[in-house]
Amino acid sequence: MSTPESTSGGAASGRRQAVLGIEIDGAGADPGAWRGAEVDPRAILTGELAVRAVQRAEAAGIDFVTFADTLEAPTDVPGEVSVRLDALGLAARVAPVTQRIGLLPTITVTHTEPFHVQASVATLDHVSGGRGGWVADVSDSAEAAAVIGRRTPAPAAETWREARYVVDVSRRLWDSWEDDAIIRDAATGRYVDREKLHYVDFESPTFSIKGPSIVPRPPQGHPVTAVLARTPEALEAAADADVVLLPESDELVSQLSHLRRQSVTLGPAARAGLVVLASVVVRPRADGVARVVEQIENLVEAGVDGVHLRPGSLELDVPLIAGEVVPRLRDRGLIGTADRGGSLRGRLGLHKATNRYARSTR
Amino acid sequence: MTKQVHLAAHFPGVNNTTVWSDPAAGSQIDFASFRHLAETAERGTFDFFFLAEGLRLREVKGRIHDLDVVGRPESLTVLSALAAVTTHLGLAATVNSTFNEPYELAKRLATLDQLSGGRAAWNVVTSWDAFTGENFRRGGYLDKSDRYVRAQESLRIVRKLWDSWAADDLIADQVTGRFAREGAGAFADDGDHFRISGRFGLPPSPQGRPVIIQAGDSDQGREFAASGADVIFSWHGTFAAGQTFYKDVKARLAKYGRSEDSLKIMPAVTVVVGDTDADAVEKAAYIREQQVSGPTALVLAELLWGRDLSAYDPDGPLPELEPVVGSSVTQGRVGYNDPGPIVAEWRAQAEAHGWSLRETVINQQNRQTFIGSPATVAEAINRHVQEDAADGFVLVPHLTPTGLDDFVDQVVPLLRERGVFRTEYAGPTLRDQLGLRR
After folding, report:
1. Chain A residues close to B117, C-beta within 8 Å
2. CATH number of B6-275+366-434
């Protein structure tokens, strides 16, 4: 892709088109969403509810979907959903039944092996044909530490510091196979060119990894890394991400300018390398479509690159988002056309991921 | 009573058996390849689709081995995607218990089981060396006996988590707002390797819990499988060796209070189907040639000899050097504990037949298990099953992803005609196909 799709054919103002994401979490962001007559609560467990919502979102032209997760099970509170599928498995289940929408499962890195994390995300990118990514998260609760039983819970700053090392080593491992490492050279009998496979020899204060990855370089080179910046520590770590999700708060504008300043210090090339979205609960069914459209427009006016929509109910709100909200945003020139394909990085206007190990000339 | 044959399809990953140079060989990594083989297996009403695991690229003499197929996706993610495009086929993931925590394993496997409607299986393996451990922050090298202790404890805890919900704990009552019975999923365990507690967030799938597969050739492995696996996976392809293994493993079940049909014995085998027996023999010889190039023959000989043999000509005689025990010339694959007698056998065979080094490797190491016309192969498979050399087989094709097309189109119908293989699936879950209780 030579030009990022989201900058082509922009609104009349010349403004870059807004990115739209959507969240899958149980039956929706509202804890009681599963109790509606329209919901079969057991369809949360089979993945059917998620598949239906993602397909609706894709048909409307929404750019990507995130899948919520935590390491520990949801707390067993009356009135709330107390089960949750592993987000990575659910995202992979959705991949073959969708074609264009990006898929970003939440993966917590505090207790899981970084080597497995990068291999799983690379695999999601392979099975989805270049639509893979992840929301990197940490587990700093005592409950999460107890289900694993290996380490005592660490403070947020420490777990996020470690998460940044995991993000870093993941990208290194994705680069550890050059794109053209598989040569299948029958003449010499060599399947791979080992000069194009690289040890990463990564050292951090808490782990080290030799490499290379076991998975050939994913289609996007670097699947998209997102961070949900719900704490100050997460906001700091978000500087390393491709996509930052900023929860709706009074600090949104100041957080946004903080991120922009950080990105400026990384140089002009970095600007297109950080997509900042406001992450908000939307309930068009309860609040009315017009109000939700206005809510989104206001956020975009405030300077974010787009909005991560958290539907109150997947069954009630997603059809309205897909059928009413998104077309209105499109009519106003705020977002691109529905049928755009290509890689997730392309959709988000992110730079092509260069491989740090590939030599420019051979 | 006529026994029913069980069949599984292996997607070949890292090995020298995949003939990647064949014009019909496709991608080892594109999802379309996995999908083709899985759909073929499901068309053939196979029990399950099986994926192996790799956690470090193999090395020969300190450099990455470059002759064989290498590079593969992560199993559970691929299988979760395959759950979307298959309806009855079991989905078996090899996942290491050394570098994964029981809670994570239980959660990921239970998710696959839920998403597939009860079709998940876990092939429990352990890591064997510090070489692999260099890619991981913990687990690392464990003494062989400790590995089994840890694996056994992992499996016990994973099962405990899967069993932490009673069948009626999922209430999902929209009126009262109670999603689960209070206390559902609560667990605590205090073992030698793990001390954990909390709440498990997934109720049992339609098959109760995922199927457990275990590879077991060693005494410890056989015992481990007999104590708790649903399927044992082995490499005893010949009839006599199969019968001996079968008898030994089934005899171990009683002491765990298990019936003989509660553990299915499914060796990994290769199959070459031809129009006639003679055609198949010729095809098999050609495939063996493709599988073992000169450089590959040298590497396989180095694994046995435990030393650098690069000065030798693969088309010349066998090295006169004596093998080295416990060498690390090759890394990331299982070596030979006692190479002496094998080297002696190779020499005897080479001398008797006038074989070169490469010819010896081809003939000693890469013999296909079932070779013949569709009728010959169907008969051989059925004989192994009826006469207790196996309960079925895991088929390892030499081509990706079309390597089982012929088998499914030509051999499966003959097994069905004989009334020893299903014409349709027994039910929605993998336990249904394997005839295992929930």
Report:
1. 46
2. 3.20.20.30
